[in-house]
Design goal:
By secondary structure, this protein is of the alpha/beta class. The protein has 6 helices and 16 strands.
């Protein structure tokens, strides 16, 4: 896909949680095509310690409103600076980058499993499935109820099941412990979140013969495969997550557990 370098304007910024903000960006021209699972590289201005762009998953694209949504976890100086943006400010973005999730097929039952800020790309994936009249099923995990993000919006597009580690909402435990996995059979699982969670989901998929894709969150500096800092060992050798991923079928990964 063609890549663009765009100065996008902040249309709104909403703090969803003490650590998460939802930034909606727009442009004077129609936004380019973007696929679920792809990401953008954002230039952070005003942060003296942030020299490289920051990779942010595409959370949602609303073509009617000409909006690109970015769900940002404020974990460092760069993302904290992004959380201080005001309406009308400009973010320079390189997009769309990477390869996304495999599109769902008619009649296919797809389970979308997310944890923490890893739920971000699954919203757009679910929305695209719904647009094709395919109902997705979301299984979302968090530490507690207050850490669950955008549930009302997820429910617009499919069935939503929840786990929390403290049992404050949904079933208590991790996503791989949810009773849904014992009650229903899925054709494919797509997942994004902390690596231990994704490895657990991948292990469940392998044990049950379910096709599975994971969206890796390796450190990505350039987003174009030039700096080689995001390399992942695969059956095809060392591959750059930013260029060859971030979405990989688990059969490609050398995950042994």
């Amino acid at each position: 896909m063609k890549k663009f370098v765009l100065d996008l304007k902040v249309k709104s910024l909403e703090r969803l949680h003490e650590r998460y903000v939802l930034i909606k960006l727009t442009d004077d021209k129609p936004l380019p095509e973007m696929l679920p699972g792809q990401f953008v590289e954002v230039q952070v201005a005003g942060s003296p310690t942030t020299f490289l762009r920051r990779p942010i998953s595409i959370n949602f694209v609303d073509y009617e409103q000409n909006e690109l949504w970015l769900l940002v976890a404020t974990v460092g100086d760069g993302t904290r600076q992004m959380a201080r943006l005001q309406v009308g400010d400009v973010l320079n973005c390189v997009l769309p980058l990477g390869n996304g999730f495999t599109p769902a097929k008619n009649g296919e039952k797809v389970l979308l499993v997310g944890g923490g800020v890893g739920v971000a790309p699954l919203l757009y994936m679910g929305a695209e499935m719904k647009r094709q009249n395919i109902e997705p099923t979301f299984l979302l995990g968090a530490r507690s109820a207050k850490d669950l993000l955008m549930l009302d919006i997820f429910k617009r597009y499919g069935r939503v099941y929840v786990t929390t580690e403290d049992g404050s909402e949904g079933e208590k435990g991790f996503v791989t412990n949810h009773s849904l996995l014992q009650q229903e059979r899925f054709d494919r699982i797509s997942t994004c979140g902390p690596t231990p969670m994704m490895k657990a989901v991948a292990r469940f998929a392998r044990q049950n013969g379910v096709d599975c894709e994971v969206s890796l969150e390796n450190l990505m500096a350039c987003g174009l495969g030039a700096c080689l800092c995001c390399v992942e060992k695969t059956v095809d050798g060392n591959l750059c997550v930013c260029k060859d991923g971030p979405v990989f079928n688990i059969q490609k990964l050398l995950w042994q557990d």
